[in-house]
Amino acid sequence: MNLYLVDYCYFRRYIVSLASVAMAVPVAKSTVKAVKAPTGDNVEGGVYISCNRSGVFALTFDDGPYEYSWDLAKSLNEQGIPATFFINGKNWVDVESDSVKTSDGEKTYMEVIAHYKEMGHQIASHTLEHKELAGATAKEVEYQMDTLSDIIEKAAGVRPAVMRPPAGSYDTNVLNTLRKLGYSVVTWDVDTQDWLTHNLDDEETAYKQMDSDKSSTLGHITLEHEVYDQTVNQLIPWAIKYIKSKNYEFVTVSDCLGVPAYN
């Protein structure tokens, strides 16, 4: 008997057996913990609309990234102001293929996404394609959220746990799906309408509702859009001065709500 042949055959059977076991046992996938429906004075319609305490202010931007995003994130960082950017993957740009000129040279939009986090800001989700979600199926919601999260993870190494529905559009089924996916859902309580008016007087009026704030008033979550020149270069410098005059502390949305920023 050829002992070498016996050993070889045994070795082959052993390897095949191991492979069969490996194929039979499913590989464990990372799981996201579902979140509960929020409660509290800062909740309306099943979503967060303001902060969970007084004295704080969450400056937020929707619809980016775009040509102003890199330098806006950089400028806010230089002023010690953390902000939250609710971004899309395919809206004003395709973040996986497009690039932009910045004060630091040409950058890909994937680099812009990483830059948000490097500058101390929170990256949050605004769906892949700025899709209004009311009436969407669970599968459609999952596609919009998971695809964008994959892109953000590739760019910045994180998966958002906070989202804002485009146009504030959602329904009960959408909220249930988003919570199963691990998202805290946020809208706003100060709406500048900057996307519509591009007029500083109107935008100032929206902010000046804060003139009636009391010491017990819950902190605010504002809504701006980083894709407009007037917003970035006129409204935001004014807003920063105004918010500071009210002695509010700038915080990210996750800090303002007391929820995780990332899954």
How is this structure best summarized?
This protein is about 40% helix and about 15% strand.
> Low-confidence stretches at least 5 residues in length (pLDDT < 50)?
1-12, 14-29
State the helix count. 9
- How would you sum up the global shape? globular
Structural class: alpha/beta
Number of strands: 13
The major pleated sheet works out as: 7 strands, parallel
Spatial separation of the terminal alpha carbons = 60 Å
Order of H and E elements: HEEEEHEEEHEHEHEEHHEHEH
**Helical residue percent band:** 25-40%
Radius of gyration: 23 Å
Mean pLDDT: 91
Strand content: 15-25%
Characterization of this structure:
The protein has nine helices and 13 strands. It is globular and about 45 Å long. Helix 4 (138-156) packs across helix 5 (172-180) and helix 7 runs parallel beside helix 8. Strands 3, 4, 5, 8, 11, 12 and 13 form a seven-stranded parallel beta sheet that branches. The chain has a two-stranded antiparallel sheet with strand order 1-2. Strands 6-7 form a two-stranded antiparallel sheet. The longest helix is centred in the N-terminal third of the chain and has 22 residues, at 3-24. Strand 1 and strand 2 form a beta hairpin. By secondary structure, the protein is α/β, with parallel strands linked by helices. The chain starts with a helix and ends in a 6-residue tail after the last helix.
